[in-house]
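Researcher: Can you fold this with zinc ion in place?
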Amino acid sequence: MNMVAWISFITDRLAVSLKYAQKSSNFCSFSTQPLNPSSINELANLCSRGRLKEAFESFKFEIWSDPNLFSHLIHGCISKKSLPWGKQLHALITTSGCYLDKFINNHLLNMYGKLGELDTVLVLYHVMPRKNVMSSNILINGYVQRGDLESAQKVFNDMPERNVATWNAMVIGMMQYEHNEEGLDLFSRMHVLGFTPDEFTLSSMLRGCAGLRALFCGREVHAYAIKSGHDLSLVMGSALANMYMRCKSLEEGEKIIQGMAIHNVVACNTLIAGRAQNGYPEGALEQYSLMKKAGFQPDRITFVSVLSSCSELAILGQGQQIHAEVIKRRATAVVPVISSLISMYCRCGCLEESIKAFLQCKDADIVLWSSMISAYGFHGKGEEAIEIFKQMERQGLVANEVTFLSLLYACSHCGLKDEGLKYFDLMVERYGLKPWLEHYTCVVDLLGRTGCLEQAENLIRSMPTKPDAVIWKTLLSACKIHKNADMAKRIAKEVLKLDPQDSASYVLLANIQASAKRWDEVSIVRRAMRDRRVKKEPGISWFEFKNEVHNFTMGAKTHPRSMEICFYLEILLSDIKKSGYVPDTGSVLQDMDVEAKEHNLGQHSEKLAIAFALMITPPGFPIRVMKNLRVCTDCHTAIKYISRLKDREIIVRDASRFHHFKNGECSCRDYW
Ligand code: ZN
Ligand code: ZN
């Protein structure tokens, strides 16, 4: 819109407002008589209590041209968030002649800015007879609110003089849209020119440092804050703690929070989120219960962190308690909370509950739809994931990269090769999205699982993105499923070039060679592991029952009831052998005799966990076991037999997916 258009736009708007103002009240003439202070007080009072209508009505024509009164009324409109009253007021100001007053104009600019009427701010700014620094600051804020940093920067550059607020507005704007580097740059210029940043600038700087994971820079801001006496305020304290935690310096962050004189919900949330994001979910939940004991009420931000901690730990009981709290605090309609609920229930093995949480949301956005697609995929329900995707398209939502990633993941986990490839094409061709490495990884998985190993390898070697260790490892797992030992050797080399310490790949390769009975190759792999000091990550399985978490490692030696458990498991294994279970000694690495191998298999953490769960849970109670690594082939077979023999639903979440065992079958259809 050009200038002339702007002006006619605002004039029209004013004319309408003015007509409205004249019709709805008796304001018809204006006087420049000085006012008595008590009436100003009375008006200010009414405005500050939000009684705008009375304020407008109690004063008649003779007092309307006092700028002081107008400023009270403008603030009243801002705090009442009332645009109609604001427009009426604007019309009155224009007719009263006060519009020539630059302070009143700035107040009006500010009002339109705060009420989100950015177009009006722009028009007013351009027709303002007298502008000052404050007017330009308001305009910058307006552009920042709209995300138009380029225009904000232009106003900033054209300003003959700037004050602290100008710099603050610009720095905060840059940081808000994660132009972190530009923000830091502006900040140092501001500093050199001798402008003192306020705590909002400092805290947005810290946010920027957190976003860049720039610990060094964050420390500098911290030092500056100490020097200028800002470090102990509530806003600064939380921002500092958040910066340290996001930069992986959990301890320093915690120290800051503990050193703060006043605690509030924001501080608690920072601590909880910091722990949740730094791989310390137990700590996050502990802090959550401390927070509640201290009388602070959790809010939506708290819920997102603690629910994600519950999904991380896959502890359903606590997750359900938090869900109850979410309902109590009426946060059930908040999209990020719903999304956390969906993934918590999904990761805890209750797909039904995820669906319920999703259906309760009236206007689900693309994030929620994507979470739901990925929940179905995680549970091996590829057809349902595709169905949800189609439903989403019918509702007119536009899929983004994340949506497609969820969908491709679902297809690859269910071996839906043709569909997966079709959606990959759709994403590139029709949606014009550029695939990420993760998308390629899904396609490689899809091809690999269905036996198209060559095609998968060709894709990796020809894609425009540089492959990482994960994508090669995906193909390596496919080599294992299809027992292609030659290719495995070649692919393992690629993985280890990129990640020489990756124990899982060594183990995978050794397993593949072992099942091909190439014992010399196995010992080469083991020697390489020893030489490079690669440590094998120990397998851990766990489950939660009655708010208690039971952990199992190989051999259960650490468990207080280990004797009993091993005894129970031995009987259980011999029972399922009677109905056809044959231990898969091929998946044991060591070149030892069959009996020793069988014993070794019988000590796996997931078998022990399931045995103990059978011992302590009532009949018919579904068993939910989590494992940090992938479940092995032998355990997978054994659990199928156990589920039939004991007539139990057994749900195992391993490092890559869920397995629902029921009546001798697994939902993954042996694809994992
Ligand atoms: Zn196993
Ligand atoms: Zn399975």
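Model: Folded with zinc ion in place. The CA atoms of residues 44 and 72 lie 6 Å apart.
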